[in-house]
Each structure stands twice: as C-alpha cells, then as structure tokens.
Amino acid sequence: MIKYRTRLLFGLVTLIFIVLIGLGILLGQLFKTHFISTYDSRLNKESSLIAAFIEEGGGIHHLNEKELDSFSGTLDSRITVTDLTGELKFDSGSIDNQVDEKKHLSTLENIIETKVNGNSNVQAFEVGGGFNLHYYWHPISSNGAEEGYLFLSTKLTEIQKAYQQIWWLLIISLGLALIVILILGARITARYTKPIESATKVAIELAKGNYRARTYEDPLEETGMLSTSINILARNLQGMVKANEIQQGRLSALIENMGSGLLLINSKGHINLINRTFIEVFRVERQNYLNRLYYHVIEHQEISDLIEEIFMTEQKVKKQMHLPIGIERRYFEVYGVPILGTNEEWKGILLVFHDITEIKKLEQVRKDFVANVSHELKTPITSIKGFTETLLDGAKEDKDALEHFLKIILEESDRLQSLILDLLELSKIEQQGYTLSIREVNINQLLEEMLPIVNQKAEEKEIKIILQPLQKNITIDGDYYRLKQIFINLISNAIAYSLQGGQVTVSIKEGKNTIAVSISDTGIGIAKEEIPRIFERFYRVDKARSRNSGGTGLGLAIVKHLVEAHKGKISVESALGKGTTFIIELHKTFPKERK
Taking the model in full, what pTM does it have? Predict the structure, then answer.
C-alpha cells in the first residue's frame, strides 16, 4: 500500500509540476513581452523627442553635436543621424568598443532600404550574432518634408538582465511553491490514503480468515464511513464464524461421542464422515475410509446391499444385521436415510449403526433363565408329585417303600426350598437400596470359622482343605455374614467340582489398600469360552454333574452381586483338567459413596 500512496503522490506532484512549468513559461513570456514593449515604447518616445529637438534646431544641417552627445550619454544609447540616402551626418560613437563600424553602417543602410523606404510600421530592429543591439529610428522633417533619419541603437544587456531576473524570480517562486505543495500533498495523501491502506490490510486479513483484525476508525466523514463499515463487517464475520465454530464443535462432539456408529456417504458414493464409535466397533482406520468409494472399503456385503437399496429406492430403510467383527459376531440395528436438499436434490446417505448385541444377550439370558427356572422347579415338583401319586395308589401299605418314598419327597422338598430361598436372596441383593451391615472383620478369623461348615462335605470326597492365613491379623470393612456366605459358596463349589482325593487351597495376599483372597481347586476346570458365563443364573459348566453337585445354579450369581456390593472385584483363572482359581479383591476401608 505504500506503492499506492507513492503513485498517488507522484501523479499529483507531476501534474502540479507540469502546471507550474507551463505557468512559469507563460508568465516569463508575458513579462518579457511586457518589458520589451515598455522598453521599445520608451525608446520610441526618446527617439521622437530627439528628432523633435533636431527639427527645432534647424534640421540635420544645423545639428548641435554637443547636446546630442549629452543625450547619448544620458540615454546610454548611440545616436546616429543620416540623410535620406544614408549618408552619415552625425554619430555619437559606439557605446562600447565591441561594435564594428562597418556592421553599424551596413545595418543603417539595411534599415533605410527595408524598413524606412519600405514604409514598414516597425520602428525597431534587433541585431544579433553577438552584437545584441536594438535600433530605433525616427524620420527628421524640415518644412513639412523628410530630410533624414535619426537612429538610436542600444545594447540589450538591460533587457537580458531583466529577463534573467524575471526567470530567477519565477524559478525561485515556483520552486518554493513546489516544495510547499510537496509537503502539503504528502500530508494530504497520507491523511486520506492511510485509512484506505488500513482498511485494505484489514480486508486482506479477513480474506485470510483472521476475523479479529480491526482498522482505526477515522473521524473524517468519508474515510470514517469506510473504516466503520470494515470494522462492522469484521465483527459480524467474527460473530458468524464463532457461532459456526461453536455449532460445529457441538455437532462434532455429538457425532464423535454418540453411542451409535455413523457413516455419511455423498451422492457419488464416497464416504465423507465416520465417527469414533464406528471406528471402535468395526475396528477400522479413519484414513482408509474417508473419501473412498463405499463398496471398495466396506467388508460386509449386507451393508453394501443396504446402501445400494437406499440409492435405488430413495426410501428410509431399517434392518437388523448379525455381522462378524473379528472373532465374534455382533447384532446391529441399522437405519439408512437418504439425504435430500432443496428441490429434492440428492445429497447422499446417512447410516446409523445401533449395537444391540448386549440387548440380544440379555434377551437370551432372560430366555435361558425362564427355561432354567422352569426346568429346576419342574424336576423336584415332578418327583414329589410322582411319589405322592404312587403312595396314594397303594404303595403306602408297604412300610419300606413308604419310608423310602417319603425320604425322596423330603429331599426334593428341601431342594425346592433351597432353590426358592436362593432366588429370593438373589432378588433381594439385586434390588436398589440394598445395604450391607459394615463393620470391622478379621479376615483370618472369618476363614477359620468357616472351615468347619465345609469340612464334612470335603471329608466325604477325601478332599484336603489348606488354609494359608496371613502372619498378622488384618481387619477389613465389610458385612461379616455376607463375606462368610461368599467364601462358603466358593469353597463349596471348589469341593463339588473337584475329583475324589483332590485339594482346595485358600490363601490371602495383602496389598497397599486391598486384600486378595484366592480359592484354588484341582477340579475339572472351566473352558476359556465359558468363563464369561459362569456368573449367569443356572449356568452349569458340567451339565452331566449338575444334579450330583447338589447346587441350585445360583451360587456364583449371588457371590458376584455380594462382591460388587462390597465394591470389590472377582476374577477367575482356569484351565480344563487343571483346576480353577477364584480371586476376590476387597478394600481394607470401605469406599465412601460419591455424591
């Protein structure tokens, strides 16, 4: 923008300089013409006066040479008088020694021939060529008839000096005027171009995207309106960009953090957007999907077929899909929506993937639970009903059969009661607002008091229970009876699924803020794929031994809920044929609820 100011100032100064030069030349010529005209007029009058003086003195034949010499010295001019033929009658002599007499006489003859006899109205003649003389003549009359001529010749030195002075005066005056105009022009151009330059810089910054740029608001009305308008524009753009950024940020946060996978495809089939959930669920790389054709990068043919269907029908589509993701298969509810702009212009397709795998699993668990409960209740009820009918049909008369059937009915009744009690217990634990009776519990003492309860069952299978307590007494915050229930269930399971003559080991490990109780057995073990399901209700690892174990299938579900109620963790390590280890990690100090 400095170039713009320089060009403006240069153009203005050039224009002014040309005007001043033209004005100087015009004034110089006017002054020169006026001065010469005045000078000629004066000398013409002087030549007329001298001619009149000669005429009054008796003409060219009675010249007063002394007076004429005096006039010559006073006027600083050479006075020459000739007759009509050009014969010299009087000559006051050269003004300086540089004038050639022959040249002087030749000039007089030339004037008489061309100017006087030619009746020219011009009564002045300039001789150049290094002489710089001006000749003025006037006819001398006697008795009404011309008898000769008076010539006044003078040097042009005074005219030249005056002319030089005029030019110097003009040059100095115009130079000073030019300097003043330069200073004022620079100030004026800077005054009026500075706001324009500032506004232009701000406009350039706005074009680059810097909407914080502002220009100085000039108080002048014309440039002030420009500056104010630029600033208003900048503020409006900044506000719009900020609002757009906020909106874009909210939209991006919503898209990236929504729980469903999202896929946006443009009208040409290129993928324009995928969110983080889609990337995590389908385990893909963002750069491998963006700006690529969907049928080149999407591995699942069901999804490609759904997209093609939307392209073909331009209708909303909703489908459930069971897709393989890595080593597992997941359920998705997929919504496909065509995106149409104004005037039904086709924009693309939006796909939303809702992962309903957990819902499907819960549905399956519910179905399994209902089926298992029905099966578990049906078995004892069928037994009780069958043996009761047998007794009513006459078997009661047989004392041995009666006693045997009554024992079976009692066992099945006890089993049914245990099952119902476990269901009620599990339901109670799962209810919201379930509270524990927290107090200090000596973990060594708790495990030692629990052993007599499980020893009888262990002795029946010749299983050895080894307790490895800590060397020092450690107390933790917990519900004594619920903790006892946890360990009894786990040790009972270890005994039930251990082979004859096996071993169950109970050990304690102390951490900084926690303790970990491990219960290991040498039983049949659990397959890796079955470990995630062992805490489900009625799930049994060994279906063939489900009845012989004597359990209800709810023990581990109760254990899991009680451990979580204590804010603890339970984990399982197992290998088929090598046994299983349950690890329960509990806090020494019961964690407080966060408000």
Answer: 0.44
